[in-house]
Amino acid sequence: MAKATTFESLKEKIKSRKAVGAAIGLGYVGLPLSEHLCDAGYKVIGFDVDSTKTEMLAQGKSYIKHIDGAWIGDAVKNGTFAATTDFARLAEADCISICVPTPLDTHFEPDLRYVIATADDIAKTLRKGQLIILESTTYPGTTEEILLEKFAKTGLTVGEDYFLAFSPEREDPGNAKFTIRTIPKVVGGMTDQCSELTQDYYGGIFDRVVPVTKPAVAELSKLLENIFRSVNVALVNELKMLCDRMDIDVWEVIDAAATKPFGFMPFYPGPGRGGHCIPIDPFYLTWKAREYGMSTRFIELAGEINTAMPRYVVTRIMEALNQHEKALRGSRVLILGAAYKQDVDDMRESPSLRLIELLQSHGAEVEYNDPHIPKLPKLRHYELDMESVPLTEKSLAEFDCVVVATAHSAYDYEFIVKHAPLVVDTRNATKAITKGREKIVKA
Question: CB neighbours of 67 closer than 8 A, spacing ≥ 6?
Fold first, then answer.
């Protein structure tokens, strides 16, 4: 009998669940991915440079609100999951998923330091029979230009000795309607064999795997998803500013338009761009487009509008305070919600943080409340060192202005409007409030 090829051996390992999985980056993508791989029967090693995270996981604790720590404790105890900062252990893994951040630098250009560092770590231990899957959102060409180029220096051949693919993450923290399993998974391999193995591996945890012809297609598909949202959010944000001048309720306009059963999809305005996708991903494509001598004006305009929204909200706060014969400088302002979206503890690129920073720069005394975030940790661009203050009749009355920045469902908006002297609502969270509407200003 002929000896099995490297491809056939790994395929059998994946099929029998004897393959060892790995997730590099144990955040909002890597940790839930690890959970589902463990549930599917794989042994998984989680890698992160943050020893605080790996130590918590080793104790069976979760540091992400919507991820239950019970599975971590069970998986650690029975040996199906281990978290480590020792990247030499990558040699133990058969299938490695890269889930590291891809932020922007100060010039709004791609910052791929984490992808590059991870590729270097993998290259040190790369061996025959390994499948490497990049999940981090990036510009088209990254898998081939960075990972393939670095791995080629090992002397191993892609598609024969090892296998390489791009498969973009599609996670939405706090969304109970869609889970990892029910969200289709796009896969683009460097070769047909790379794609087939990735489909086999992820087919065990995703109900539907969608193969495309090459990594660049998968890379651009992820950017298109987020650019689509960015452009439409920018449209309604611009419309909101016009509606404010025309004394028209933009949310009522959108709700009316949404009754059309075809050709329309509702998007809603807010205080600025937030999350790990909309504020960042479109700029990865605008940067790459310049390499081809093209300016993506439509995408860049949307980014400019969304980026400017926190300043617009601050202007509306100033106007609202003026109506109460108060200046922003010296006023006490309470920001409701530090998370970037409703009912999560995720602060990545949250517009609330930019609002706090801008208000402070104008001389306001700013506090925040968030039932999901008791303390603001040190973040990549912010070091605010603040703790969530309680919401009481007395505390609300002592603020000159309360700003609804994140519409958490835990908030009692009737109570807030009743006791706050002024409410600036950026999310239409107070739409059902009938008493005290004279205190509410939309922004």
Answer: 31, 32, 35
Residues 56 and 196 in one domain: yes
Is the Cβ–Cβ distance between 158 and 138 less than 8 Å?
no
Burial pattern 321-342, b for ≥16 Cβ within 10 A else e, equals: beeeebebeebebbbbbbbbbb
| Strand partners of residue 164 | 132
Contact criterion met (CB below 8 Å) for 81 and 60: no
- pLDDT per residue, tens digit, the chain (443 aa), is 567 899 999 999 999 999 999 999 999 899 999 999 999 999 999 999 999 999 999 999 998 877 888 899 999 999 999 999 999 999 999 999 999 999 888 888 899 999 999 999 999 999 999 999 999 999 999 999 999 999 999 999 999 999 999 999 998 766 777 788 899 999 999 999 999 999 999 999 999 999 999 999 999 999 999 999 999 999 999 999 999 999 999 999 999 999 999 999 999 999 988 776 777 888 889 989 999 999 999 999 999 999 999 999 999 999 999 999 999 999 999 999 999 999 988 888 899 999 999 999 999 999 999 999 999 977 666 678 899 999 999 999 999 999 999 999 999 999 999 999 999 999 999 999 999 999 999 99
Does residue 307 sit in the same domain as residue 415?
yes
DSSP per-residue string spanning 257-310: HTT-SSS-------SS--SSSTTTHHHHHHHHHHHTT---HHHHHHHHHHHHHH
In three-state secondary structure terms, 186 is strand
- Say if CB 37 and CB 45 are below 8 A apart: no
Angstrom distance (rounded) from CA 417 to CA 436: 6
Neighbours of 295 (CB within 10 A): 10
Q: Kindly state the tokens that stand for 203.
A: 């087919």
CATH code for the domain of 277: 3.40.50.720
- The dihedral built from the CA positions of residue 236, 238, 243 and 249, taken in this order, carries a sign that is positive
* β pairing state of 131-134 and 163-166: parallel
What total number of domains does the chain contain?
A: 2
> Longest C-alpha distance within the chain, in Å?
89
Does residue 236 fall inside a structural domain? yes
Tokens (6 digits) for 157: 């051949």
Owning domain of residue 77: 6-213
> Catalytic residue numbers?
277
